[in-house]
Amino acid sequence: METTMKNVGFIELGNGTIPSLVQDVSLLNGYQVKKILATQKATNKIAKDHYPDAELVEDSSSIINDTTIDLIIISGTANKDLGIVAQAVGAGKQVRVL
Protein backbone atom coordinates (compact mmCIF):
# COMPACT_ATOMS: atom_id res chain seq x y z
CA MET A 1 0.00 0.00 0.00
CA GLU A 2 1.37 3.41 -1.01
CA THR A 3 1.56 6.15 1.62
CA THR A 4 0.61 9.64 0.49
CA MET A 5 2.63 12.31 2.23
CA LYS A 6 0.67 15.12 3.84
CA ASN A 7 2.26 18.53 4.15
CA VAL A 8 2.21 20.36 7.48
CA GLY A 9 2.59 24.04 8.28
CA PHE A 10 3.47 25.27 11.78
CA ILE A 11 2.30 28.67 12.95
CA GLU A 12 3.88 29.67 16.27
CA LEU A 13 2.37 32.86 17.66
CA GLY A 14 4.73 33.70 20.46
CA ASN A 15 5.22 30.94 22.99
CA GLY A 16 8.05 28.94 21.42
CA THR A 17 6.09 25.70 21.07
CA ILE A 18 7.73 24.41 17.89
CA PRO A 19 10.69 22.82 19.70
CA SER A 20 8.29 20.75 21.79
CA LEU A 21 6.50 19.62 18.63
CA VAL A 22 9.65 18.37 16.94
CA GLN A 23 9.49 14.89 18.38
CA ASP A 24 5.70 14.56 18.05
CA VAL A 25 5.50 15.42 14.36
CA SER A 26 8.64 13.50 13.47
CA LEU A 27 6.91 10.36 14.72
CA LEU A 28 3.84 10.77 12.53
CA ASN A 29 4.12 8.58 9.47
CA GLY A 30 3.01 10.19 6.28
CA TYR A 31 3.55 13.82 7.33
CA GLN A 32 6.29 16.22 6.37
CA VAL A 33 6.83 19.75 7.60
CA LYS A 34 6.77 22.08 4.63
CA LYS A 35 6.59 25.60 6.12
CA ILE A 36 7.19 27.15 9.53
CA LEU A 37 6.25 30.56 10.90
CA ALA A 38 8.01 31.25 14.18
CA THR A 39 7.98 34.60 15.94
CA GLN A 40 11.13 33.97 17.96
CA LYS A 41 14.61 33.79 16.39
CA ALA A 42 15.67 30.95 18.69
CA THR A 43 12.62 28.96 17.62
CA ASN A 44 13.50 29.53 13.96
CA LYS A 45 16.96 28.05 14.47
CA ILE A 46 15.67 25.00 16.34
CA ALA A 47 12.93 24.45 13.77
CA LYS A 48 15.39 24.71 10.88
CA ASP A 49 17.83 22.33 12.61
CA HIS A 50 15.10 19.70 12.97
CA TYR A 51 13.34 20.36 9.66
CA PRO A 52 16.10 21.39 7.22
CA ASP A 53 13.82 20.98 4.21
CA ALA A 54 11.10 23.23 5.66
CA GLU A 55 10.78 26.80 4.47
CA LEU A 56 10.80 29.48 7.15
CA VAL A 57 8.16 32.09 6.33
CA GLU A 58 7.40 35.53 7.72
CA ASP A 59 3.60 35.59 7.65
CA SER A 60 0.75 33.18 8.26
CA SER A 61 -0.78 33.73 4.82
CA SER A 62 2.25 31.98 3.28
CA ILE A 63 1.10 28.83 5.05
CA ILE A 64 -2.67 29.31 4.95
CA ASN A 65 -2.75 30.09 1.21
CA ASP A 66 -0.37 27.30 0.21
CA THR A 67 -2.57 24.80 -1.64
CA THR A 68 -0.11 21.97 -0.95
CA ILE A 69 -0.42 22.22 2.85
CA ASP A 70 -2.99 19.84 4.33
CA LEU A 71 -2.63 20.40 8.07
CA ILE A 72 -1.78 23.54 10.02
CA ILE A 73 -0.62 23.30 13.62
CA ILE A 74 -1.13 26.56 15.50
CA SER A 75 0.34 27.43 18.88
CA GLY A 76 0.38 30.65 20.80
CA THR A 77 -1.71 33.03 22.78
CA ALA A 78 -5.47 32.52 22.75
CA ASN A 79 -6.33 36.03 21.58
CA LYS A 80 -4.39 35.48 18.34
CA ASP A 81 -5.50 31.90 17.69
CA LEU A 82 -9.13 32.39 16.70
CA GLY A 83 -8.52 34.68 13.75
CA ILE A 84 -5.79 32.44 12.36
CA VAL A 85 -7.91 29.33 12.92
CA ALA A 86 -10.84 30.93 11.07
CA GLN A 87 -8.59 31.83 8.14
CA ALA A 88 -7.11 28.33 7.97
CA VAL A 89 -10.48 26.59 8.17
CA GLY A 90 -11.84 29.00 5.58
CA ALA A 91 -9.00 27.96 3.29
CA GLY A 92 -10.04 24.30 3.67
CA LYS A 93 -7.18 23.24 5.94
CA GLN A 94 -7.23 20.75 8.76
CA VAL A 95 -6.23 22.61 11.91
CA ARG A 96 -4.81 21.60 15.26
CA VAL A 97 -4.50 24.22 17.99
CA LEU A 98 -2.09 23.68 20.86
Unreliable spans = none
Oligomer designation? single chain
Beta strands, count: 5
Percent of residues in helices = 25-40%
Q: Report the sheet-strand fraction.
A: 25-35%
Major sheet strand order = 3-2-1-4-5
Ends: how far apart? 32 Å
Structural class assignment? alpha/beta
Mean pLDDT: 81
Largest sheet report: 5 strands, parallel
- SSE pattern, N- to C-terminal: EHEHEHEHE
Radius of gyration: 12 Å
Shape designation: globular
Q: How many distinct helices?
A: 4
Describe this entry's structure for a reader.
Helices cover 37% and strands 28% of the residues. The protein has 98 residues and is α/β, with parallel strands linked by helices. Strands 3-2-1-4-5 form a five-stranded parallel beta sheet, with helices on both faces. The termini are far apart. The relative contact order is 0.24.
Features of the shown structure:
single chain, 98 residues, 37% helix
Strand and helix map with partners:
Layout (H helix, E strand, L loop, with lengths): L5 E7 L5 H9 L4 E7 L3 H10 L4 E2 L4 H4 L4 E7 L2 H13 L3 E4 L1
